[in-house]
Amino acid sequence: MQALPSSYKDPSGFVFIYKNEVHRTIHFCYKNQFEKLLESGLYEHLVRKQLLIPHEEVDSIPLQSNTFKIIKPQQIPLVNYAYEWSFEMLKDAALCTLDTALEAISYGMILKDANTFNIHTCSR
Q1: Least CB-packed of 5, 45, 71, 73 within 10 Å?
Q2: What does the DSSP assignment read for the chain?
Q3: In angstroms, what is the C-alpha Rg of the chain?
Q4: HSE (CB half, 13 Å, CA atoms) of 29?
Q5: Half-sphere exposure (Cβ direction) of 71: Cα atoms closer than 13 Å
Q6: What does the domain layout of the chain look like in residue ranges?
Q7: pLDDT classification of 124: cutoffs 50, 70, 90
Q8: Which of 48, 60, 74, 46 is nearest to 1 (CA)?
Q9: What is the per-residue pLDDT across 52-109, written as a single tens digit (0 to 9) for each?
Q10: DSSP string computed for 84-98
C-alpha cells in the first residue's frame, strides 16, 4: 500500500491505488471523527444530496499498524480539475462547498479543508 505522491498533506490517512482502483486509508488518529460522520447521519445526508461521493469499507486489504479502516470511494471515470472549468462550473463548485459546509455545521461538524481538489465533476 503506497500513498499517491499527491496524498502527502493529510496526517489522518492517504489515498492509494489497489487493483487499479482508488482507495483511502483512515488512520486511528481520525477514528472518532470518521465514526461521528457516519453515526450522525451527515454522511448519508450528503450522499443523498449528491454533495459527497459514497464509499464502501474494504476488509480484503491488510491494514497497516496505524490504519483504522480502508475505504473505496465510488470511482469517478473521468476526473477534471478547476483549471479546466468555466466560470459557471467554478461557481457551482463554490456553491457546492458552501452547501456542504452549511450541512456539516447543522450536524455540529465543519469541513476539514475546502480546496478545489476536493470538488470533481463527473462527465456522463
Answers
A1: 5
A2: --B-TT--S-TT--EEEETTEEEEEEEGGGHHHHHHHHHHSHHHHHHHTTSS--EEEE-SSPPPTTEEEEEEEPPPSS---GGG--HHHHHHHHHHHHHHHHHHHHTT---S---GGG------
A3: 15
A4: 6
A5: 15
A6: 15-118
A7: very low
A8: 60
A9: 999 999 999 999 999 999 999 999 888 888 899 999 999 998 999 999 999 999 999 9
A10: G--HHHHHHHHHHHH
pLDDT band of residue 10 (cuts 50, 70, 90) is: confident
From CA 99, how far away is CA 62, in angstroms rounded? 36
Q: For residue 87, give the C-alpha cell.
A: 466560470
Nearest-angstrom CA–CA distance, 110 and 33: 11
